[in-house]
C-alpha cells in the first residue's frame, strides 16, 4: 500500500494561555471539552486526530458548527500551530519546516479556498485569480492566460476586469476557487468553499469539482457541514464532534455501518436511494429473479430502482469497468433503503469494498 499524501498523527489543539500545561489532563487523563473549559479555562479545539489522506482523493472533513473542522484544515498549512502531534506531507514533517520552507510549501504545494473569500479588494477578478503565479514570478501573459482559463471553467468569463465589490457573494467564492486552480498545486484545501453559493450553482460547482478531479487527480481536503455534499464528493469521509473523530472511512460504509448512535442519527434522515451506490449493496452469486438490466458500480440505488421498473422479483446486474461485479435482488433493496433500528443489528453482508 502506498504511503498517504498527508498523514495527521495524534494531533491536539488547545486554545488558551497555557496549552502545554493542561495538555496532560486532556491526553493522559481524558478530560473532555466541557470539563477543560469549566475547570481550566481552556478550549479544546482538536483531540487526538489521526487521519491518512491519500493522493488523488477527496477527503471530506465534516461536522456541526464548533466540531473543529476548520481548525483542522488550518493546521495542514500551519495557519494554526498545534499543541501536540505530527503532520506529514509526502513523509516530510511539516512541523519541522522553517519560515522559508513553509512559505514555499504554501506557494507551490498547497492552495486554499476560504469560506470568507479572502479576495484582495483593490485587485480585479483577473488579478485575484492570477495571484499565485504572480507571486511565483511567472510572466504576466502566462499567469493571465492560466487565470482566464479557470475563470471560464467556473463561469466567470467576461468578469475579469470587475472588482470583488462588484460581484455577488457566490461569484466572489468562484473567484477564490479559480485562484486555487490557477495555483496548480498538488493539494487543495477547500474550507466551506461552496457554502455561499445558491443551491443550483452549488450543485454545478460540486459537479465541476468532480469533473476536474477526474482530469487533474488533485489531493483535495474539503470542509463542509452539509452531509449530502460530503457524501457526494468524498472518497474518504471524516466526521468530527467536539474536536474528535467519531467515525471515518468510505462514505457508503459510514451510511451502512454507523459506528454509534450519534452517527446513526446523523445519517438517519438522508435519502439513501440518492446516496448509496449499487456497488455498496451488490452481492455475489447467480441471479435469483429475472434479470431486467444492469447498472454501473457507481450508479445510485435510484438508478437501480429505475432499471428494475418497480418489480420486486427482478435481478439487476452490477458491472465495474465493463466486467460483471455482482447482482442486486430488488426484493432486498428495502433493507438498504431503510436505516436499521440499532447500531448493534449491523448491515447485511455485502461485497462492498472487496
Q: What does the model show?
A:
With 354 residues, the protein is of the alpha/beta class. It folds into 2 domains: 55-82 and 97-249, Rossmann fold; 272-345, CBS domain Like, CATH 3.90.1280.20. The chain is 38% helix and 23% strand. It has 16 helices and 13 strands. It has helices spanning 19-27, 33-40, 69-76, 99-109, 125-129, 131-136, 140-153, 169-183, 199-216, 227-233, 251-256, 261-267, 272-275, 278-281, 301-308, 333-337; strands at residues 6-15, 43-53, 58-62, 84-89, 92-93, 110-113, 187-191, 219-224, 236-241, 244-249, 290-296, 314-320, 323-329. A 6-stranded mixed β-sheet has the order 6-7-8-3-9-10, with helices on both faces. Helix 9 links the parallel strand 7 and strand 8 (219-224). The chain starts with 5 loop residues before the first strand and ends in a 17-residue tail after the last helix. The model is unreliable at 342-354 (pLDDT under 50).
> What is the 3D shape?
globular
| Binned strand content | 15-25%
N to C succession of SSEs: EHHEEHEEHEHHHHEHEHEEHHHHEHEEH
Strand order of the largest sheet: 6-7-8-3-9-10
Uncertain regions spanning at least 5 consecutive residues:
342-354
**What name does the CATH topology of the largest domain carry?**
Rossmann fold
CATH architecture designation of the largest domain = 3-Layer(aba) Sandwich
**CATH 4th-level superfamily of the largest domain:** P-loop containing nucleotide triphosphate hydrolases
Mean pLDDT level: 88
Give short descriptive properties of this protein.
354 residues; alpha/beta; Rossmann fold; CBS domain Like; 2 domains; 6-stranded mixed β-sheet; 4-stranded antiparallel β-sheet; 16 helices; 38% helix; 23% strand; globular; disordered C terminus
Amino acid at each position: 500500500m502506498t504511503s498517504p499524501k498527508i498523514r495527521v498523527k495524534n494531533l491536539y489543539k488547545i486554545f488558551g494561555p497555557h496549552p502545554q500545561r493542561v495538555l496532560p489532563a486532556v491526553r493522559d487523563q481524558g478530560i473532555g471539552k466541557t470539563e477543560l473549559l469549566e475547570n481550566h479555562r481552556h478550549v479544546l479545539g482538536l483531540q487526538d486526530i489521526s487521519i491518512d489522506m491519500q493522493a488523488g482523493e477527496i477527503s471530506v472533513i465534516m461536522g456541526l458548527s464548533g466540531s473543529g473542522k476548520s481548525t483542522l484544515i488550518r493546521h495542514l498549512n500551519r495557519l494554526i500551530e498545534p499543541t501536540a502531534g505530527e503532520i506529514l506531507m509526502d513523509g516530510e514533517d511539516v512541523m519541522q519546516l522553517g519560515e522559508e520552507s513553509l512559505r514555499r510549501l504554501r506557494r507551490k504545494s498547497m492552495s486554499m479556498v476560504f469560506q470568507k473569500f479572502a479576495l484582495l479588494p483593490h485587485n480585479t477578478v483577473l488579478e485575484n485569480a492570477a495571484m499565485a503565479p504572480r507571486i511565483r514570478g511567472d510572466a504576466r501573459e502566462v499567469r493571465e492566460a492560466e487565470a482566464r482559463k479557470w475563470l471560464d471553467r467556473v463561469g466567470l468569463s467576461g468578469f475579469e476586469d470587475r472588482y470583488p465589490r462588484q460581484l455577488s457573494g457566490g461569484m466572489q467564492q468562484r473567484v477564490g476557487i479559480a485562484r486555487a486552480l490557477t495555483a496548480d498545486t498538488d493539494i487543495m484545501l477547500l474550507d466551506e468553499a461552496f457554502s455561499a453559493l445558491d443551491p443550483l450553482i452549488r450543485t454545478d460547482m460540486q459537479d465541476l469539482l468532480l469533473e476536474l478531479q477526474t482530469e487533474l487527480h488533485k489531493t483535495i481536503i474539503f470542509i463542509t457541514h452539509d452531509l449530502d455534499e460530503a457524501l457526494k464528493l468524498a472518497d474518504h469521509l471524516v466526521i468530527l464532534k467536539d474536536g474528535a473523530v467519531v467515525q471515518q472511512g468510505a462514505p457508503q460504509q459510514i451510511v451502512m455501518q454507523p459506528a454509534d448512535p450519534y452517527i446513526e442519527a446523523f445519517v438517519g434522515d438522508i435519502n439513501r436511494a440518492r446516496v448509496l451506490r449499487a456497488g455498496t449493496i451488490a452481492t455475489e452469486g447467480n441471479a435469483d429473479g429475472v434479470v431486467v438490466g444492469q447498472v454501473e458500480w457507481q450508479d445510485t440505488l435510484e438508478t437501480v430502482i429505475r432499471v428494475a421498473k418497480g418489480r420486486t422479483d427482478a435481478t439487476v446486474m452490477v458491472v465495474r469497468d465493463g466486467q460483471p461485479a455482482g447482482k442486486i435482488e430488488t426484493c432486498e433493496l428495502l433493507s438498504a433503503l431503510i436505516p436499521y433500528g440499532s447500531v448493534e443489528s449491523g448491515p447485511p453482508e455485502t461485497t462492498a469494498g472487496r
